[in-house]
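Q: Could you predict the 3D structure of Outer membrane lipoprotein carrier protein LolA?
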Amino acid sequence: MNKINPIMKAKIQEINQNSITNMIKKCFQMAIILLLSFTSAQAQDKKAKDLLNEVTSKIKSYDNIVIDFKYSLNNAKENINQDSKGNVTMKGNQYVLNFMGVTKIFDGQKTYTIVPEDEEVTISKVNEKDDNAITPSKMLTFFNSGYKYNMDIVQNVKGRKIQYIKLIPTSGKDQRKEILLGIDSQTKHIYNLIETGKNGTKTTLTVNSFKTNQPLSKNQFTFVASKYPKYYINKLD
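A: Sure. Here are the predicted structure tokens for Outer membrane lipoprotein carrier protein LolA:
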């Protein structure tokens, strides 16, 4: 097995410190777009708004959504290229995310972060005042303000017509330059989400599998402590 250059390894570890949190945000950015009705008072591209509303109307009929995805992080300047896979199950205000060896469960009130490598579970309440916190309310309001959007390019991806919508942050403090949202024109499902940062970092979330109304366990979004008898339970609240 090839050894990773120590400097490169350090750079990758530094970026990965926030990868899981960013991944959750991207998953929910998709969910936000899927669930919003986009009633911003700002003048926006009507075609883009109509397409987003079509997607919204369809997604609202689903009881739950299960997504398998690929996550790519690229920064040419730092010579970093990373690919990871994961999956997320969402129902109402709850979710379970599996990514980079870590499982996050949100039961509607608390978040449980399970790290098998460290044999540790961190339990925390959601702070509505925390700008970085992922909450159900923010899922439904994130894109209502702070972005302008318009129709972008159309691409043919393996026979699928993918229509892109470009979202541009209106705040100069936002570290993101733009977000491209790819929508399958036939199914009206999200195909991918491409986020470009002002520092040149590009992250791409590509949906490999999009399933709806799946049979879920009653304990799907419940943390069961007995499953982790040797784990250290770290309660932050």
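Q: Anything worth pointing out?
A: The longest strand covers residues 80-91.
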